[in-house]
Amino acid sequence: MHATLTDVITDTTQNSIEAGAKHISLEIVEDGKTIKVAIKDDGKGMDEATLARAFNPFYTEPGKHDKRKVGLGLPILKQLCESTDGAVSLKSQKGVGTTLEYSFAAKHIDLPPMGDLVGGILMLFNYPGDFDLAFTHRIGDNEYSISRLELSDAVGGLESIEGLNMARDFLASQEDDISGR
Predict the structure, then answer these.
(1) What number of H helices and E strands is found in the chain?
(2) What is the pTM of this model?
(3) CATH of span 5-179
């Protein structure tokens, strides 16, 4: 099981990157009662047969993982959502893209902590590939949005330690601002 919600968020967003998406949207909304996550992409999508098997722990897309024949990400997500009074929804169309939405009861005793969200988002932004990831985080009435390309341009690239440090500082300052820290 994942140790933090950030682990879940990065794992599920990484699926969009691996599906060849060029445009990915990741939105996290916290209203005090629920934590909602929505990931939308224009990746390769899934046909109806694959979509029907997506939550089966004994299935993974052929060719996705060289060394294993099971895919536990979505089944674990579904279990976590259901055990924390949340829900999960997966919609996909082959050749069009996928939308994954999930939620948790924010105060549920079994809900893992958020963890290092800044580090997780920075890791996703630094994932190799030709894609843009638009990230929005809203807590109550406060929110910020930034895309991978915007952040990379602002800090002079995410390939150097200096650029990564500036990006981390920026994301941390935005998180502090919306959370009232």
Answers:
(1) 6, 6
(2) 0.92
(3) 3.30.565.10
